[in-house]
Specification:
heterodimer, A: mainly beta, seven-stranded mixed beta sheet, B: mainly beta, six-stranded mixed beta sheet, five-stranded antiparallel beta sheet, 11 strands, globular
């Protein structure tokens, strides 16, 4: 499967725990994006990364959320001290070149986080 | 401030008829527009796109129209099929990552 791979697909965390979501981009893609979809809402941009660099994190909450895309391995979205409001579907996407200049981004299947 | 708006949360169409999904945007810097289709519990799937230098792009049953002066685009599906029932997201980009609308849920009734 050469598509964008996300894991876990479903994650349940208690309030105060940490959630780690992983994303492997499509083969050959070096640009990764994270989006969040709250219930009954559209997709909200969170962060745009290239290998070892955060390009745009304007959509990331200022606290508790962080993202990385190391030289080796998947991109990781980390949420510390989760709260109920973090319950959402988190989608990762990737593109061959920058996704801001007329290039299509391709999404993974999503990771559904439930905070109890 | 919603830069991409899909004002119809839902749409029902009979099988075989045309489905028209609409999208408005406010940012004049947007120059590339896309439509994604999403089934429950799955990721969005790219459907069709259009550059701002064009006013129409067609791919099989799907056609996207762009009216730059009105900052409006639409997706036409003809003929509509039951398998087209999904949520459709309009998205736009310029010098920013893709900005999405809230989606329109299309139901195609057999």
């Amino acid at each position: 499967n050469a598509g964008v791979m996300q894991n876990p697909r479903h994650l349940v965390r208690r309030r105060g725990q940490e959630a780690r979501l992983r994303c492997s981009p499509m083969k050959g893609h070096s640009h990764v994006y994270w989006y969040r979809q709250l219930p009954e809402e559209g997709l909200k941009f969170m962060v745009y990364l290239q290998k070892e660099n955060i390009i745009d994190e304007s959509g990331m909450p200022k606290e508790r959320f962080s993202a990385e895309f190391p030289k080796e391995g998947p991109s990781i979205l980390r949420i510390q001290q989760v709260v109920r409001g973090d319950s959402a579907a988190y989608f990762c996407a990737s593109s061959l070149t920058t996704g801001t200049l007329g290039n299509t981004i391709y999404f993974g299947e999503g990771s559904w986080l439930t905070v109890v | 401030d919603q830069q991409v708006k899909q004002n119809s949360p839902s749409l029902s169409v009979q099988e075989g008829r045309i489905s028209i999904l609409n999208c408005d945007y406010t940012n004049s810097m947007f120059d590339y527009f896309l439509w994604y289709k999403k089934y429950p519990a799955e990721g969005p799937t790219f459907l069709i796109s259009i550059s701002s230098i064009k006013d129409k792009n067609e791919d099989g049953r799907f056609t996207v129209f762009l009216n730059k002066s009105a900052k409006h685009l639409s997706l036409h599906i003809v003929p509509s099929q039951p398998g087209d029932s999904a949520v459709y997201f309009c998205a736009a980009s310029g010098n920013t990552p893709l900005v999405f609308g809230k989606g329109t849920r299309l139901s195609v009734i057999a």
